[in-house]
Amino acid sequence: MIDIVFINPGDRKQIYQDLGADISAIEPPFLTASFAAYLRNKGFSVAIIDAQAENITPLETAQKARALNPLLACVIVYGNQPSASTQNMSISGRICAELKNIGIEKVVIGGLHPSALPERTLREEAVDFVIEGEEQEPLFALLESLKGFREIASVPGIWRWERDVVVHTSRSPLAKNLDEVLPIAAWDLLPMDKYRAHNWHCFDDINNRMPYAAIYTSLGCPYSCTFCCINAPFGKSGIRYRTPERVVEELELLNSKYGVKNIKFVDEMFVLDERHYMRIMDLIIEKELDLNIWCYARVDTIKEETLAIMKKAGVNWLALGIESANQDVRDGASKKMRVKDIERVVRQIQDVDIRVIGNYIFGLPDDTIETMQETLEMAIELNCEFSNFYCAMAYPGSALYTMAIKENWELPKEWKDYSQHGYAMLPLPTKYLSAKDIVRYRDDAFHKYFENPLYLDMIESKFSMGVREHIEQITKNKLKRQILE
Length: 485
Description:
38% of the residues lie in helices and 17% in strands.
């Protein structure tokens, strides 16, 4: 018998359609593995089943869990990017149901989506407990309770049934020492041979996307963009850091023990506090680690004088949240930048041979066909080495979700349909456009961008003919969309 088995849920086919086979990344569940390490450091016995990486069914997942005879089964629901938790709730619910059906007595669910909608999650899913807020202290206290060391009513941050009544305790206070609550992850419990980087992350070496790892160096974000739900587990905006020394210690382990070169910093805002991220860069250089890194930044947090050092440390890709070309649309989403600043910063980054991923959103509340066209034209003009085109979605935990509930706007019927690439995906309408208009525009924009000869010529020149052919192959497959049929 073990104390706790963690389960990382996933359904690549449902979330990515045919892109899940060999194009999308398979990301290790850093938070889950770090929670496991935290509890192991406290003396509990732990295991992890990564259903996403192993690509196994809910029943197979439950059977693996039952074989371990756990005191507690824990499903942690996050995604490959901060807003992707909700799309994993459908498969998570099926896993929880199979866990209970197969005879596992106690099941708890945590993660961004459950934290955003704890009572609804408890009522809808076959679970005994839902964690609201950060997971570490509630899991520690819950295990102590199940072992008879404390009363269940004293466990912080959980929702549960007491007879036929829903009861809950206050969230656990936010942890102050991230090195303690986010220790080096239990990588030894993960199938490290199954993780795969994004295709664009390895355009310099497209046939070597494995091994791969993703880690957090901080938690939270100090900004409050209306479309983002990143701060749902924390209850407020803000950011806390692991020490650079601990981060680089983990990078050393991944590099030396597991041969990992391809690294993602998952932080919503890695390039923010120069004292933090540049100390990490300096330590990577000092230790001569050979890494291929990508991370998130905002246009207004980039400092030109730091870019050459970041490149030397192995940062080869920066993902910028550009969102919209239109000032009014962007300001309505609480993201104020000028178009000329965006172009200037993109060129500064590219001047030191760091590649740029432009992230764009169609269907923000003030969007029209004309403003979306502005955004597409800007994307084509910037001609970044890669671009992501999203539709504005009302993710639980975001201001847009609160607005959608208040206004009674139509939302996806199932949680899986919050996936940007899903068949039944349903974004929000704008003041001027229907959801159908937005999906059609987004999918057409994807093909206009990636089939553009100027883009393809740039890719061939900067990388190789093989990468160009890889992109051309991707664009031959069009996503199937229920709303467009």
